């Protein structure tokens, strides 16, 4: 039964991954993550996810700040980070490969695992609401 569900879902997962690889806007990336997750993003859930510590020392906001339209600062290295929200950094989330690289690294720091497609979609939805 599980194999049947995987075979049915596989084309949708592949299509979502292809969309991520070609995305050049935050909205396009979000749609790709939503396709993989199979559920629409929720900005309020993304905001909660961004500020929660998830059982560890850090949250996304630990480095990117509570209002990521402004520059952040890495919690350990103190390196200045470009604003994360597209309103503060028009280049944010325009390179799908780079986005995946940083989601993978940062999610492992914050969650001790990779983020799900749904979590990524939610965070992107919230970041796009910021001005």
Provide structural commentary.
- The chain is mainly α and about 130 residues long.
- It has a single domain (about 1-125), classed as Cytochrome Bc1 Complex, Chain D, domain 2 (Orthogonal Bundle), CATH 1.10.760.10.
- The chain is about 55% helix and about 5% strand.
- The chain is built from 6 helices and 2 strands; from the N terminus they run H-H-H-H-E-E-H-H.
- The longest helix has 21 residues, at about 1-20.
What labels would you give this structure?
131 residues, disordered N terminus, two-stranded antiparallel ribbon
Structural topology:
Elements: H1 2-22, H2 26-37, H3 43-51, H4 61-64, E1 72-73, E2 80-81, H5 96-111, H6 117-127
Antiparallel strand pairs: 1-2
Helix pairs in contact: 1-2, 2-6, 3-6
Secondary structure: number of strands? 2
Helix content: 55-70%
- Gyration radius (Cα, Å) is 15 Å
Tell me the CATH superfamily: Cytochrome c-like domain
Secondary structure category? mainly alpha
In the CATH hierarchy, what is the class?
Mainly Alpha
Report the end-to-end length measured between terminal Cα atoms: 47 Å
How would you write the strand order of the largest sheet? 1-2
The CATH topology name reads Cytochrome Bc1 Complex, Chain D, domain 2
Strand content: under 5%
Number of domains: 1
Mean pLDDT: 88
Unreliably modeled segments? 2-8
Write the H/E string, N to C.
HHHHEEHH
